[in-house]
Amino acid sequence: MPRKRRSTKSRIIKAAWNLFYKNGYDNTTVEEIIAASKTSKGTFYHYFKGKEALLNSLSDLFDQKYEELAAAIDPDMSAYDKLLLLNHELFHMIESSVDIHLLAFLYSSQLTTRDKKSLADNKRFYFKWVTQILDDAIKSGEFSDNSTAEELMNIYAMYERALLYDWALFKGNFSLTEHSDKLLPHVLDVFVKGV
């Protein structure tokens, strides 16, 4: 996808989710999304059929965050520290800018949709980049080689989905970021020792 087109779509998605968080999904109009994203009505409808279509764009918002982090992260960091940082930054973004009710709705819709399951799409930047980090860690000996990078990726993604589901289930009554900061090192320690 050309850079300009991707950035326009990204602006729309980011503006929409910011408004959903501030005003709630039901209280956000397409017109407000258009104004906040500095696009036109025609441009909005070129990318999305309507406001409902934006609900499945949450994985795009997550990938935008990962792309920002990929551009800024120190390449010399250990894989262990990279994964701790990525998880912390993503969960902080979710906790501070994603409406928990919409997150719960998205997770439940992923179970019943016949369409592409956007959160499990291994073509996403998230899956490609984290799998590369894991593969590099296995090759360097930082993580045990008794599992493949793909197997570790499945465990890592399952951990993140489980924690997000739990956070939504309990209506955000605990800090997602702080909880993950305490638990993720235990998962990564298993990657070091071997699954």
What keywords describe this structure?
195 residues, Tetracycline Repressor, domain 2, 0% strand, disordered N terminus
In terms of topology, how is this protein built?
Layout (H helix, E strand, L loop, with lengths): L2 H21 L6 H8 L3 H7 L10 H15 L6 H19 L2 H13 L12 H16 L8 H21 L6 H18 L2
Tell me how many strands there are. Answer: 0
Largest sheet: none
Report the sheet-strand fraction.
under 5%
Indicate the structural class.
mainly alpha
How many angstroms separate the termini?
A: 38 Å
Description:
The structure is a single chain. The protein is mainly α and 195 residues long. It folds into two domains: 1-48, Homeodomain-like (Arc Repressor Mutant, subunit A), CATH 1.10.10.60; 56-193, Tetracycline Repressor, domain 2, CATH 1.10.357. Helix content is 71%, strand content 0%. It has nine helices and no strands. The protein has helices at 3-23, 30-37, 41-47, 58-72, 79-97, 100-112, 125-140, 149-169, 176-193. It is globular, with a radius of gyration of 18 Å. The chain starts with a helix and ends with a helix. Residues 1-5 have low confidence and may be disordered.
Question: What's this, in brief?
Answer:
The chain is an all-alpha fold. It has helices spanning 3-23, 30-37, 41-47, 58-72, 79-97, 100-112, 125-140, 149-169, 176-193.
